[in-house]
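Sanity check. The docking grid for pyridoxal-5'-phosphate depends on where the pocket ends up, so I'm generating a full predicted complex first rather than guessing from homology. Inputs follow.
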Amino acid sequence: MKDCEMTAAEIMAEDKKYIMRTYGRLPVVLTEGKGCRVKDIDGKEYLDLVAGIAVNGLGHCPEVVVKAIKEQAETLMHTSNLYYTLPQIKLAKLLVEISGMTKAFFCNSGAEANEAAMKLARKATKVAGHPEKTVIITAEKSFHGRTLAAITATGQPKYQKMFTPLPPDYKYVPFNDVEALKAAVDEKTCAVMLEPVQGESGVHPGTAEYFKTARELCDKFGCALIFDEVQTGLGRTGKLFGFENFGVKPDIMSLAKTLAGGFPMGAMLAAGKYAEVFEPGDHASTFGGNPLAAAAAFATVSEIAKPGFMDEVTKKGDYFRAELAKTEGVKEARGLGFMIGIELEKPDARAYAEEFLNKGFIVNPIGDSIIRLVPPLILSKAEIDEFVGAAKNIIK
Ligand SMILES: Cc1ncc(COP(=O)(O)O)c(C=O)c1O
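Predicted complex below; grid placement will be based on this.
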């Protein structure tokens, strides 16, 4: 373990004094990580089934990403987007090639990627001569981030109520309800924005029928289909992009989380005519796609896009969910790939999560009855077995 100049108690006290209380932190100070494991300040090791909430797709400190960051940091870390840089164009080309989208815009987080997506959709309607098309439809229980527009898009009043007034012209529909979607989309609709699998509210996959209906409605009414792939994108669901599970391609897609293997980065990809809508001055980000972030992302995405990588995630994800489903006290183990929601028989998610932590496993409780697992995509079968073994004792 590396030396640390403060104890856990001292760090927690200073945190309380100097950092705003926006997070309900668990009483653990993490200091290092490798692969699927992290260590706390006292040297205790944990198997990390949360991976920075679906960020550390290649595990902690993956060699290819560390190397890319080191090399780029010694060459050119940052320059303005007023100039061309090689890492950014290499990344954009790679993302376009693997997604079938047309062009990319780079930013620094998922919320920013969604902001860019919504701005793009709004401008697209105006460019098309339809300024009356302003309404953005999203799903109840969705999660799209924490900026003012992103909490407005997020169909959960608890994230909105203290921050009103909200930007106007958002409408919410129950997720996976085909008829409700048909009733909601009309001439005023600018965009329909959906997560392929709702993550934050407890891992609820959409259905192919629902997304196909959304695609048809957007085509019929000339509005944009936006997929928020911030959590589902880049391998999480066992496909490179969540939309591939449903055979429905969006017009606009947001990415972040796994994108740069732990380095902060977001992207918005657009297809066809949507790729040509933004002009200089319409949208920007000082840091978006800077050489350091782009190099980290290029290394990460290159690894995830290697032949066979996705097959492994699918295979291991299926095995993981099947093993969990057999566990006493588990009502359901749902999800796709390594995006897993464990629905518990008893509403004790928080108590179980604490016990998992005591036993050296990091999991993410959602509400009273769900535990979310979004582990590194490189989690091995032996590590899955280790967790399932512990779950058998803890959950029952
Ligand atoms: C689907 C989805 N969209 C957007 C976000 C927001 O991303 P960020 O926290 O990087 O702004 C998240 C974060 O959890 C998410 O899961």
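Relevant for the grid: The CA atoms of residues 185 and 217 lie 7 Å apart.
Also worth noting: The pocket of pyridoxal-5'-phosphate is lined by residues 53, 109-111, 114, 143-145, 195, 199-200, 228, 230-231, 256 (CB under 6 Å).
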